[in-house]
Every structure is written in C-alpha cells, then in structure tokens.
Fold these 3 entries.
Entry 1:
Amino acid sequence: MSDALSGIRILDLTAEPGFFAGKVLGDLGADVVKVEPPAGDPARRRPPFWGGVADPGRSLLWLALNTSKRGITLALDRPRGRELFLALAEQADVVLQTEPAGSLAARGLGWETLHARNPRLILCSITPFGQTGPRAAWRGSDLTVVAASGNLYATGDPDRPPVRCSLPVSHYHGGLEAAVGVVFALLAREQTGEGQQVDVALQAAMVMPSIGTAAMFRMTGQRGARVGAFMSAGRTVQREIWPCKDGFVSFALRGGPARVPGLIAMVAYMDEHGMASERLKAIDWKTYNHNLLTQPEVDALTREFGAFFATKTMAELYRAACARNLMLAPVNTAREIVASEQLAARGFFVDVEHPGRGRLRYPGAFAVTSDASVALRRPAPRLGEHTAEVLAELGLGAEDVERLRAEAVV
Amino acid sequence: MRPLFAGTTIVEFGGGAAGPIATRYFADHGATVIRVESRRRPDFLRILRLTPTTPGGLDGSAHFAVLNVNKLSVALDLSRPEGVAVARRLALRADAVAENFAPGAMAKWNLDYGSLVRERPDLVMISTCLNGQTGPDRHYPGFGGQGSALAGFNHLTGWPDREPVGPFGTITDSLSPRFAALLLAAALLRRRRTGEGQHIDLSQVEAGIVCLTESILTCTANGEILTRMGNRSRHAAPHGVFRAADEDGRECWVAIAVHDDEDWRRLVAALGRPAWAARPALATLAGRQQHVGEIEARLEEWTREQRAAEVAARLQAAGVDAAPVEDFGDLHDDPQLAHRRHFRTVEHAVLGSHAAETHAIRFSALEPRIDAPAPRLGEQTEHVLLGLLGMEREEFDRLRAAGVFE
C-alpha cells in the first residue's frame, strides 16, 4: 500500500488520445482496467506490428501506451454489459474516457448515472475542445487541435506550411493534464468525500507548450513567425539546429550569462582543432549579449561554428559537450536513445516479457523516486486477458463468465 | 468553494520554464508558492531578453511575468551562509520543495533532500533537470532546446527533405512540468494517506522519451527508425495543412484530417463531388496515399480562395475533422478558449494589464484562479520572512542591512 495511487481503481474507456493518461496513472500504482469492446480497441489493428505480424497483441501503438493496465472486454451497448460496467463503477474511483461530449450520457453512462451509483467516483474526459462551448461538438485530432493552439503556426520553415511533430504530442500533453486533474480530484475527495467531473481539452493543453508566448501576444505583438531550424533573438534570427558530419545537433548562441562559459569552452574546443579564427578568439565574452548582435555578426559566427560542426559526428560533439559543459545536444533518433550510456547507467530501459511473443525493450519509469514507486508494472494486456479475473472480483464465477462470453457481452 | 491547496506551501528554487510552470498548477488552486531568487544569479527568464534599456530591468520581463503569476518572491543571496540558512528554514517549513538547478547545486548549499530530510522526515521534494540526478552525463548543462533534441522530438518534427525543426517552444520544458505537477500531487496524496515523504528525480529527457515510447518500440521491436514526415500520416490521407485566403495581408492556413474512407466520402460531398475526387481509386486509404500529392494540390486549390475559419466550419458541419491554423494573436479571439477562460488578465506593476494562462483542466467542483501578477524580485521577502516564517524584526533588519536579501 505504499505507492502513491495504491488501491485506486481506474476504469479506462479511452481511445488513442487517452491511452497515455491511464498509462502514467498505472505507473504510479493505480489499478487501471482498460475496458475494450469485444472486438478490441481499433488501435490493436493499427500498424506497425511487432515483427510485421498483424495481430491484436502486436500493434506497437497499443503495446507502447497501454502498459501498467489490466484489460477486459465488455459490450457497453448491451444492457447486461452496461449493468456490469455500472457494477464495476460502483467499486471504482475514476472513469477515464475520450468519447465526444454527450456520447457517454446517450449510452446511459453519463455523469448523473455514474454519480448516483457512486458519489465518490471521478469522471475524467479528454476531448479535442472540451465538454462545453461553441466548439465542443467539433471533431478533432492531433493535427487539428495543434493547429488551433498556436503551436502549429509557429513550427516549421518560413517557406512551407506550419508543420506538426509526426507523433501526436497533444495526446501526451492532454494525457498528463488529465492525470494531474485526476489526482487533484482525488485530493479534493479526501476533503469533501465527493467525486467530480474533470474536463480536459487537447486544444487548450497545447497552448502552454508555446511556453507563455501565446499569453505574451498583446505585449510583444508576436504572432509566431516560423523560423525553421532557427530561433528569433533580439533583432536577429539565430541558428538552433545545425548539420554535422552524420546528422544534426542543437546548439544556441542565445541565452544569458549562464550560457557564456559554454560559448567560451566551445571556442577553446574549436581552437584545439585549429578551427577558431582570430576574430572569434578576440570576442570579449564579458560584454557579450546575444540580444545586441547584428545579423551580419550572427551570420559570421554561424559560418564558423557550422564549419566546425560539419567535421564532427553527433556522438563526438555530445561527448565533448558533456566533458566541457557545452550547451550542445545531438538530434537523437530512437537508435541513439536506445544506445545511450547515461540512460543505461540509470537503468532506464526495461525488458518486458510478453507471454507467447517474447521480450521487448521499453522506456521504463518516467521518474525515479526514493521509494521506487513509479514503474512500468505490466505489459499491455492481450484482448480480454483479465476479463475473468476482474469479473471474479465482482463476485462472478467461471460459469457466469462463460455465459457472458456465449452472449457476446465479454 | 475553498481552494484545493489553501494552506499548502511550496518553496521553489531555480527558474526558467520547466520548474515554474509545474508549481503553477498548485498556485492556481490556492497554494502559497514561494520563489527563492537572487539578484546575483537572476532567473533565466528575467534576463532572456534583457537589455540596458528594458523598462523595469529584472522586473520587466514579460516572459517571466506570464509564467509566474500567483507566486511570491523572496530574494536571498545563496552565495552567503546567512542566505542559505534562511532558505533552509523556508524549505523545512514548506509542504513541498521544488528545484530545477543543475544536479549538485542544492547539495552544495546543504539544501538537497538527503540533508533536509534529516530534519523533516516527511519532506516531499522534486528535483528536475535534463538528464536526472545520477549517471555520467548528469552535469550536462543544456536547456529545453537540448532536451527536445536528446529526447527525440526534433528528429520527428519537420519535413523529410529538410533539417529537423523541433516543435515550437522546446517541448521538454512543457511536458516535464506536467509530469512534475503529477508527481508532486501524487506525493502529497501519498503523504496524506501514509504519512511518508518522498524525493522525486525527474529527468526531463527520460520523461520525454516515455512519451515517445511508440518510436522506441518501433526501433527495439522491428529495428525501424520513425522519422519526420511533414504533416502526412502513416494512417490517414489526406492529412495536412493547406493555404487559405490571406487575411489582413497575413498568410492563413487550415488543417484537414481525413481519418478513414467514410471521412473521405464526407469530404468529397462537402467539395461538391468534383470529378477528380469522385474517382474510385481514391475511395480507399491505400489509393489516397498513392495519389496524396495530387489530392493535396487539388484541396489547396479549393481552400486557397476561402477564409480558413470558413473552410473549417464548413467541413466540421459536414462531419470532417478540420480547424483553422491559429496564430498567437488569433488565440485571444478563439471562442472556445474564451469559453474555457483559458486566458485571464492581471495587473503588473511594470508591464501593466496583461494576459496569463491557466492549465487545460476544468473541474466541476474546483476553479483555477489567477489572483496576483508575477512578483518583482524579492517583492515579498519581508512579508514571507516575518509573516510566514515568523522571523523576528530585529533579525530581519540585521540580515537586510548585511545585504543578504539581494
């Protein structure tokens, strides 16, 4: 009973946008029960599949974001399935869901019903735009909610359309907001004894990722011009992503006094390789202020740093960065991440056994706590893997479960 | 209703974005969040755009102001033992301590968990930095831009034929505070239930990688590397951002996502069933992916003459997933964000009236509030030390005269 959310039962009805919320709450020790229709969640049918074998237990999307959950099947559109769900909800603390606003209520599983059956229950909804308001009924997905958040407009190259991250970052942001909302509601319940509704909007969740720039608009007038691999600073644009010998690195001229020692160290590093010009070595770093540089000065610096990076690999530059305190990082792909010595030293990756399918290496705990209470606790469930187990906790016997199976309720 | 964290005190060391955004979740629900700051080493955001002519100097940063509303500031010079001693008293009195200095900095002052917990056995404390508190690269000094690159977000963002760009806003600086708020809230709940404290070591890079687990598994399971693909999707077509009619001389765009064959039929109907779109070859995802370049060009011919908001409204009415691409100015006129009161207005001594945002969670029985602007550096030193910490006036005056509150 020592983990943060030990003894908290969460019924996870979510589709893909909500997978991450249940996963992080499961990592914190909650008993998260994924509730799928008997045919399985659509994500199980989405490629790529582990080993290229199309199988509901091998979708990498499913496997990635449903760890630390048990899984049952339940036909919520059948009266018996609905009744079983309400019986589970009576004993649960939280229901997580991603259906369009009003859809759960239309199925007889809305807040009034759930609250009447279990006043302590928390209902957390994750939707593109929220439960109420002029766009509550709008459809949305990662691309369109990021479009409506200001973040897309500012991302990309100036001569091309705004561009998104190719994995759905709004689902991670929104999932974390939902998890925070759930724990806040659990804390509130400690005081009041009552559950409540938690309403997370993915659009709104994607405004903060612009780190205050949206809120600053009326002060700065900045609408978010795209500068590609660059960054606006003072009167200039300064390069942030630089090509190197075998890929790209992130490095910046900007920043306050905290960055200056790194710039001095970088020039010394270049000088050891005979690649720091006299002009570069002559810069007075005591008075250096990146906000006061002119564009020709920035361009001259960029040429020198760029020419040096082109002679080095990502790994060489990152080793030097760690040894010399340079604010430079490789633009990692999954390959470099899996091979990281730092992550290995912290025991970050875990090998997870999947019965009948083999072992697979996963990113492990999202944080290290003094009592190791955050952990990837179990592999993503196979379809209906825990149906009998969870129904047995409701008092149903094996025969009852067989009958439900025959009636296609589970 | 009573704010959830009324009576809860959090002491915050560090600065920039990642640390301060995390504690805002608590401040916006009534917690007393006390920033320990100094003039000798000001917060990164107080000086990011500072020039000799910035009005208000260290108190004139708009960026600092929008991220630090609802907080108090105590100025303490931590290069002096008297300053460290006061910081220690504050930390020991708090319900939780949050810090995002480089690893080892807190230990240098004996303000690390191992030191504080001896006097405060149920301490809840979170330390967050790029690479975590342990491991050979723990002292690596990067900021959010480097964190995003290390965690794999930059590689996945941009056009396949160009250099990566990274999502605007250094994404580990916005993901990690959400993890931190979750971890702190969970630790407070756990202490309430068990009486036990906790130290949390949050590596911003690791937390980011956990988000991108799908990319890691694609590598560890199949040896494949996912990469950036512009706005296209492996699972949907068309899926992109299209130029709409210019407005006020500005380029405008609309995002359209067709997730399945039924969506495509709806889109074709909304377009008025032109011959190019009605071709059977485009009725399936495989067919649309094969002709995706042509579909995108044709769609843009249609969107180019209309206002982005009109295209989106029209497609939404037809049941198609679409939204205008809003810039940071547009967000202040967005009807949905207005409905959710995402932005609130505060009055700042230097900057005047300005907007600040609260989190994206709305509760039926809790209300996030923004009651106070971001503090000027050291603005509440006296209030906090005399009022909350119970320091005697005589000691306060002596320390102030000695320059400890700088």
Entry 2:
Amino acid sequence: MQLKNTQCNANIDTHTNNNSKKMSIKSKLTMATCALLQAGTPAAQAETGDWDIDTAMLYYSEADGRVSIFEPVVSASKEINEDEYLKFKLVYDVLTGSTPYGAVPTTTEQTFTKPSGNGNYTTPAGELPLNSSFRDTRFAGGVDWIIPIDRLKRVTVGGNFSKEFDFNSLAASATYAQDSSDRNQTYTFGLGYTSDTWDPVGGKNPELTYMRIGGTDQNGKGGTDSKATTDFMLGLTQVINSSTIMQFNLGMSSSSGYLTDPYRFISVLESDGTLTPNANLPTDAYPYLYEKRPDKRTRNTFFWRTVHHLKEDVINFSYRYFTDDWGINSHTLDFRYRYELGGKHYLQPHFRYYTQSSADFFVNYLLESNVASTKFASADYRLSEFVGTTIGLKYGFEMSNNSEFTVRAELMNQTYTVQDEILAEQQGLDISPDLNAMIFQVGYNFYW
Amino acid sequence: MFRILLISGLLTSLLGLSACATVQPWEKGLLAKPSMALVADENEIFLDEHIYFSKEASTGGQGVGGGGCGCN
C-alpha cells in the first residue's frame, strides 16, 4: 500500500459565517492532525458525536486485458472528546487480469511454469508474455487516534493492517505536531514501522536460479520470508499569505529483508536474442532466471505542496523528489485546479507527470554468458526508466444536507525506455509496450 | 552531496518563510475553506497513492505509516 497522508490544513475559521456542521467537524479534525489555526479559536464549533463518513469506489482498468481493480473504501471519523478524534478506514481490493512477469517476447511460442510449480502455461509467438492467473483480493484497514497535548500540540498514533492470500502487513506510526503561537506554522515529526510477510503461491523461488518445468522437482522452491521498513518524516506547514499555504516534508525510509518480488523472472537469451537452448540449461529448466534484488533499500523524499485560492477557484500543486540507493531518482508533479461552477458544483481538472530513472540492476533480459556473474537483476518494468502521465476530470456537488457527491475519470499512460540492445530475435517486437489505464471513481461523503 | 545541498536549501527556505509570515487570524477566511485543505479529498489521494505505489518505484513524501501491499 502507500504511505498515508498527513493531513494539514487551515480550514478552521471562526470568523467565517458558513459554519456548517460538515465544516466544523472536518475543520476540527484537520486541526487536530496538524492544522494551522488562528490564535484564539474557540473549540465550540464541532458537532461532537456525529460520524463523518467518507466512501469511495475505485475502478481501475488497464488496456489489452491486463489488470483490473475494483476497490471500495470507507473512512469514518469522530470526535470522542474535545479535540480528541478517532479515524477508521477499511479497504477491500479485488484484482483480476494478466500481468507481465518480466519475460520478453520472441518469435516462438514460450512456455512458463505457473507460480505454484505444479503446471505450465504458454504465450503465443510474438506476444509479450503475461501471466493470466493473476488474481488477488486484499482486505486492509487502519485506525488513527489523535490526542491533544495542549492548545498547540498533539500526537497521532496509528495502526494499519493489510491481508492478501500471499502477503500480510502490519504497521504502526506516531506523529507529533506543534503549531506556532500565532498558528502560522505547524511543525511535524513522524515515525513509522511496517512489518511485511510473504507467503508466495508455491513458496519462495530460489533467487537467480532457473525456472524449473512445472510438475518436476522445483529446485528447493518453498518457504516464506519477511521485510521491515522504518519511516521518518520532518514537516513544516506554513501560511504564506491570506490565500496561500505551503507544506514541506522531508522523508527517509529504510527497508531491509526480502525485497525481491517472489513471482518475477528474467528471460535468458543467446546473443541473437533467441531463448537459451535446453542443452545450456540445468535439467528440466526453462530459460528464465528468478530475479534478485538487494536486501536493503534507503529512500529519501522531498515533498512540497502549495494550495492557492484565486478569486473563486483553488489551485493545488505538489512536487516530489525521490531518490534511493538502488539508483532510482524520480520527479512527480501533480496539479489540480478546482473550478467553481456556482451553486455548490465544481469541476476539477487533474494533471500528473512522473519520470523516473532505472534501478542499477534493472535489465530487459540477461545474456546467458552473463548469468554466472550476475549479483542482482530484475526485469520488473516498474524499476525501468519511464515517464508516466495522468490526465483527468472530477465533478463534485455539495448537497444541502452537508453531504457531497464526487465522480472522476482519468486516463493514465506509462512509456518505458528500453535499456538493453534490441537483439535480432526481438527486432520488430515491442519488448516493453506502453501501459494504458483508465481510472474511474465515485465518492460520497455524509454525516451520521 | 545533492542531499546536503537539498537539505541546506530547504532549511534556508523554511527559515525565510517563518520570518515572513504575518497573516493575522482575521485574514484566514479563505484558508479556512474546506477546498483549501492540503488534502481536500482524502479517499481520492489514498486511492491515487495506492495506484501509483503499485505501478512506480517511488513512494512516500506525504506522511508515515500506512500498510504494506504485495503489489510492489
């Protein structure tokens, strides 16, 4: 999953006449998480006892019969005592479709072992190999408890879990937030710990070994493994002027353990691009090598967000710089423009641009002559150099009973850079085709 | 080296920002609007982060904690 948002904003104002129930509860909650408040805000606005319920349903669908995700989310928050809040979130994912596991296309039919090790599947000549047995459901949830220390300080403690049939995750976090006395700044310090356990279908594949033919001896395949991640974050939220607020975060994340993807592998080719013949492989093996990643990773992020109010409309812009010790650097720009249509309707165009460099050990394929000297390798397209763009539009309508309905539709594209030489066998074949996906979401927010 | 420069630049910027903030409580009417929240629609950002976490090599920047996912 992803890191959760630290919600920091300035949406309490007792000098605003529009003190709807919705606004007051939301405002108090955002204040409690790390908001900037004007000095002297009385705490009498909230409708203590009401649940603020946020629901959303996501449908994500990739072109060419690849992955589809159906994902409902329900969040609920409530003020349990003055300035003390509980927030819950439940998520259910259903994933279906086909996904590439790292092999390149060839002009011949290719056969692969199923993840279970018990059978085989084939990919027609000239096509990007996809595993069509990709199915998963995930159930995840979390709770945050926001505890006031005094008028300017608060702590948020949280816990999250995520459960799939082959993966379990448990996480805990704590964030301290302190406002300046004039409430024009909020300083935050966050700490998080996540423990993940893999129990892959058919067990763990021995890293950097050849795939064994399904139904034969699997060369020691089996077992589970785990990884742990520690996150730190330093943040500042700053009121710039009466219509602009900025947020700056520095993040550091350190992971160790089993960071390899248990299902991914790499094509092993001859110098002309054909698959390595059986004669050069171990007994009962296919010419694919299970990937291996380093067992440590340190990630650093710098995040900057600006929210600016124009005469009616609102611009929300963010930039993130990411760098890690696997050689990946990335830049993410995100731009949302809330265009007020009047009468509590709005449109919100969204544009996102993302670019990343490849991991040091990313390969499109391995030559058989290089296998013995390989220490780490992955053909996971997500570790390659690529550019991602998303463009979308959201429509929102605030109803009279303080509820809000939203719907959005977006198109996403990823275009990858092929790093290794295209060999004779792959001439004319697309070894790293674009990913195109559609995002559709409806949301409904109400009080109960 | 880049990180040192980045952190130095950031700290300098933050000190500068802290020094210039003079917005008074009664000037925060616009900032108080829900549409001015840093994250105005939490579920939307949550779902976006899940999508991009599973499709990109980068993650994080906005907070700590959260649960893992076998998708990446």
Entry 3:
Amino acid sequence: MNDAPSLFDFMKEQSGKILDQLLQHIGLTFISLLFAVIIGVPLGIFISRKRKFSAPVLGFTNILQTIPSIALLGFMIPLLGIGPVPAIVALFLYALLPIVRNTFTGITEVDKTVVESAKGMGMTNNQILRKVELPLSMSVILAGIRTATVINVGVATLASYIGAGGLGEFIFGGIALNNTNMILAGAIPAALLAIFLDFLLSRLQKINLKKVRTAFWLLPVCFVLLSSFYLLPDFYRSKMLAGFTPEFMGRKDGYLGLKKVYDLNIRTVVISDAVMYKAAYEKKLDVIDGYSTDGRLKAFNLVILKDDKGIFPPYYAAPVVREEVLQKYPELKNVLNQLVGKINDSIMTELNYRVDYLKQSPEKVAKDFLMEQSLYKDPLIANEGTVRIGSKILGEQYILAAMYSMLIKGNTHLQVETKTGLGGTKICFDALTNNQIDMYSEYTGTGLMVILQAPDSVVEKLGSNKEKVYDYVQQQFLKKYNLEWLKPIGFNNTYALMMRKKQAEDLKIYSISGLVNYLNKK
Amino acid sequence: MISLQNVVKIFGNTTAVDDISFEVKEGENIVLLGTSGCGKTTTLRMINRLTEASSGKISVNGKNIKEVQPEELRRNIGYVLQHNGLFPHYTIAENIAIVPQLLKWPQQKIANRISELLEQVHLPQNILSLYPQQLSGGQQQRIGLARALAADPPVLLMDEPFGALDAITRNNITKEFSRLEVLKNKTIVLVTHDIREAFELGDRILLMDKGKIVQQGKPTELLFHPKNQFASEFFSTQKMQLELNSVFLKDIFQHLVNENTNGNNLPVTDEFMSLWEAIELLQNNHQDFISIKNTSGEIKHAGYNSLFTGLEALKQQSHE
C-alpha cells in the first residue's frame, strides 16, 4: 500500500470498468424492478379486490424482505445457478414487498365517495380501476417503486458474489484486497446512483395529477430502456467465460499478472469462492481460479492449467515453529520432519476432498493417512510438557494439525494441545509471535507476500523458484521473529487456473499459454 | 316511473329495509326523510343497484331493474352524492363529460352539452378547465348535479345532496335547486334527514323509521296530520318554522281580517308568498302591515297579528 494512488487517479484509470459495472448495476436494478412492477402491481390490485388474500400475501412478501440478502442469494444458487438470473430473481423478490404493499394501500385509500360515484355513474369495474383508482393511487404506487429502486441499488452490490457483476465487484474486491480506493470506486457510484434515482422518482411522484396518466405509460418504457444496459456487454462475448474471486481479480499474482505476463484476454465475472467450483462443474464458467490442493478440484473433476510462465509464487507448506520450543524439546524437529516428502499436490487434494466433500473428520483422514504410511503409533505417556499447535480455518490446515498432533503423541512424551480455526494468516501468526501457540503450518508464498510483505524487487528476483523463496522466508523469519521454518512437506497450494477436465482434454489445453493460444485463435 | 313492491334488504342479522312499497310518478319529486339508520339511503341505492335488494321487485320506467345490466341502468339514472364524489384528477369539463363519454357521444355534442349545463346550474364557463378542489363547496355540488344531468337522464337519485355544506350555503342552494328549470321535468328521489330541505324540495315526503315507511303525503299533511307519535315528534322541534314555510298567503287569505290602516306606502305582494317570507317582508321594511292582492284582485292589509290568527284558523279548519 505504499505509494497508494489517490482515489481520483484510481477512478480515472478504471473509468471504463466503473462505467461497465455501473451499467450492469443499473441493468440489474431495473430488470428486476420491471418484473417486480409487472407482478407486484397486479398482485396489489388483486388483494385490494379480494381482501381475504391481503394478509397472507403481504405476510409472505414481508418474510421475503426479512431474509438477509446474502442468504437469499445463497438460496438461489442451487435453484438457478450463478450469474444474472439468480441475482435478478433475488432482487425481484426484494422489490416485491414495497410495490405490492403500496399498490394495495394506494388503492384501498382512494376516497370511497369517488369510487362510489364512479360506480353510480355506470362505470364498469375495469373502468373504475383504470380511470379512477390507478390514477388516484399513482403517487403512492410510485412511492413504493421508489423504495424498491433504492433497496435494489443497495442489494445489487451483493450480486457480484454470484457472478452477476455490478458495482459490488469493486466493493468486494476492495474489501478482499484491503484497497480503500477500490471500495470507494464501487461504493461512491452506487450511492450516487441510489440518490439520483430516488430524486428522479420523487420528481415523477410530484408531477401534476393530470400528467400522471402519461407517466404511467412512460415508466415501463424507461424501465425497459434502462434494463437493456445489462444486456449490451453481452454482445462482445469471448469464447470462454472465466469466474474469478474479487481478491484474485485485484492481485498482481492474480488476474492482473495473467493479463500482463500471458496477455490473457477472456470475458470475466467476479464470483465468490464458495460457488465458483460448482459453477465451473455445471458449465456456467469455463475457467476459474482456485487453490491447487483444493478438494473440490477432485470433487468437481477439474484440472489445473500449468503455470508455464511462473506468475504464481510457490506456496509450499511447512511447519513454522518457535525457536525456543525446538531448543527445549530437541526431539520435536525429527518427528515433525517425518511428513516431508510424503504428501504431494495430488495426495493433499485427495485428503482435502475427503474432508471438504466427503465430510470425513480431519482426525480420521489424518489417522488413515498416517496408518497407510506406517507412521502412526499409539500415544505414549505424556509427562514432559505441552506443545500447542494452531491452524487457520481451512480443511487442509485441520488435517495437518491433526497429523502433527498424532506424530508428537506417538513419538514423544509431550502433551499436545490443538487450537484450530484461528481465522486467517494474521491471527495465526500473531498467536505464534505472542506465545499463544508454538507452531502452525504456513505457506512460503504467504510468508513472503503477506507476512514479510517483501518489496517488489525481491519478489521479482525470487520469481517462482521454490528453493529461493523458501530460503528467503526461512532466513528472514529466523532473523526478524526468531521463528524456524522446518522443511517443506512437499505440496504446493498455490493459485491456479482450472478448467473442466473434459473440456481441457477436448480442446487440448494443458497450460495457461495453451489457453491464451486457444482464445486468440479466430 | 319508479315502483318498489315489497322490497326487503337484510344485512347479516339486521333488516335495513323492511317490506317497503311505493310509486313515484313521472316528474314527481319525492323525499325519503328520516334519521340516520332508518334505511332511506339503502332504499335509494337499491334503485340503481348499488345495493341489491334481498327480495321484492323494483322497476324503473316499466322495466324490472334485475333484467338490465347494472352499468346500463346506472348510466340512465342521474346520481348525486353527499360529498359530490367529483374525480379530483379530472377537470370540471371532464367530470361533467363522464357519462356522455361512457355512452360514447361525439365530442362536439359533449362540449355543447357541458356549456349548456353550466348555464343551467348558474356557473360561469371559465371554470371548465379548473379542478374540483379549486371550487367552493356550493359550486362543487352544482357540478355534481350537472354531472348527474349530463346525459339527460329522466330519473335522478340524490343522496343527501346538500349534507356536506354549511347551513347558510345549504339554505341558499336548496332554494335555488327548487327553482332550477332543468329539474322541473325530472323524476327525483331525494334522501335527506333535514326536514326543511324535505319540505322545500318534496312534492311528497316518505317519512321512514326502522326500515319502514311511517307516513307519506304532502308536506302539510305530515305536518298537520301526523299519523302517530313518531311522526309528530319528528317535526316538533322545527314545527313553527315549518308551518310558516309550508303555508302560503293564498291558503289563509279567506281567514285574514282586513285591518284598517292609514298608510298608503305599504309593501305590496301577491298571494303566492309563504307566511315566513311575508314576516320577513314586514321586518325588512319596518312596517306593521303589508298589502296582499290575490288573483281575483281583492286586496287585504295584514299585520303580524292577523297573519298568525289566519294560520290558526287554517289549522282549525284542516282538523275539522
């Protein structure tokens, strides 16, 4: 974050992207609003006619409104997958309540004598609705549409979680990368959009009663027009669609690097890690980013594209232990090194698959593996002190913590205490330096980029050479924090691009360069 | 023109209208009079099917209303409501044009009809492009009447048409309505709880209580020959004023004692003035006597004393 560009510079630089996202945002808001009006207004009219339905209908839409937006989007995924459709459905459900309620209230609050006189003059029910009730309740109905619009502009930011785009891409990318400018570049246009639309609709509401009849027809036309914004970007689609996490999108060793080093040119959507793998499996996405040992790789039958130009730094896992603990219990080092060379990428993926996907407990997976490798021994009597093992919230880390715990208990007389689920890197590392835990497993790349925050020049010099990166972090950790990196276990949990196995084989794409060649081929 | 035979209306457990029968002749103005909840409004609304009768037969212009489409029926019956019910989002012109529009009259015919009606209800043409809320209550009520008359329906139903106006406006407009030329040939059923209004506008009054007609007849008949306790009590509070209003000089001319006066500059009137107006005339001119000339040319001079003596004599006579 040194030499951070100003917000203005950032927005200027990204203006094209901001505009795209803004148009997508407007599109998402208005398509859903259009459907909400088409369904909501007639529904409101219906329940104003058949009062006994009003309580259940309003109650139901009320409940929809109370579902947290992120949860509602979550419910949509199994039903509708990812992308604009589930986002629009979720936004539609949110917009429904204010529109139904205001239509109902507006119509039921039209002066009874006016309706009575209309009836007394021989107007049919349909004529009364069109000529009396709708025009007279129009400002209340518009107020409902106005509320729904503002709600939708807000909720639409979350649409980026499921790959529907919009200004949320910047907001959540910014949060993931701790980049304030990026957050603001998404948040400010979103806020301005909400204020602007609110103002516009408030003007519409105050328009002379007389012109309301025109406005009533003008409104859907505007909606359709604004909705079309969303569809425009789809005209220049590339052969494949990539889904990347907000974090990956903004990282130098992520999408930015892919563009710079490989000259990758692919249509992308931003999507959350939680749904990405499944979306690739269901052919909603063709290329995703992910972790090379992720169990879902196996679960969803994906393959990793070889990083042939080496832009992803190595993330080899190794135990990081407090130096004084190693001195106090010298036997520990050899015990911990027993895992070295036993787990490669595919084995780790397999183990993760059992935990993440087959829902086996990390302890069982760890024990089974150690038994297979003939490393498992029954615990000895523990009477020589305690070693505290930490782990991040990550299936893989739970498995490693369980293995180390079993190895220590089986080979030494030390007691083991595990403190699993210590959030992210920062929490684990702080726990270690503050003598809350004695060891945890860390990745060389994370040590380099996140903990040491190595300057660009160093990162470039080390490149993707795993020995050099390991040596650098090993030396620096010992010097700066008095922490010892033991030997790497052998697997590399780095960023990777993945595709469906079948598609990759059909297209003969095995590396990122291969992907780029395929995309550039006309 | 309108006939109701054994009409009953039951809402849930309450009988709002209990076996009512009456006829309204063409051009006749009848008033349904009674306290609130007596069933008078329900009776009125059954005539244009805003409320459907539970049983009994209603016919308008010789046709059973059950056999006519409700919308069709209502377009041919003028309807005036208490709170005028003008469309707030329509201009005055558009409001008046509603029924002709529904009947798909040509535009030119509608425009002509609107300006004709405005003249008839004594309103200036320049209000046509205004909205109802820009007019006074009395003006709105007149527009309400003009709207009801727009398609020239032979029958007019009026539900407390002046109920929302203040007392003074109501008094003036009631008088004005009773003299409007356009209403002369209409068959009108009017609902009111206001006794004076009923006396002013009704050729015949139907006094209602608890869903039944207690008594019907000409205003003076109800006043001087109340059929029962309810009828006599109903009129008691305003009896004096009603009497003065409903008795005309011609009715008591024969009982008047010609008084000797020496003045020659007495106010002169014909015999078609009500007693009430005669007393007003006396007061306004600060005179003790007025000079009354009947149609056959006979002249009598009368003061307060002789006017009241004449009224008493008339009442005596009608009781005998």
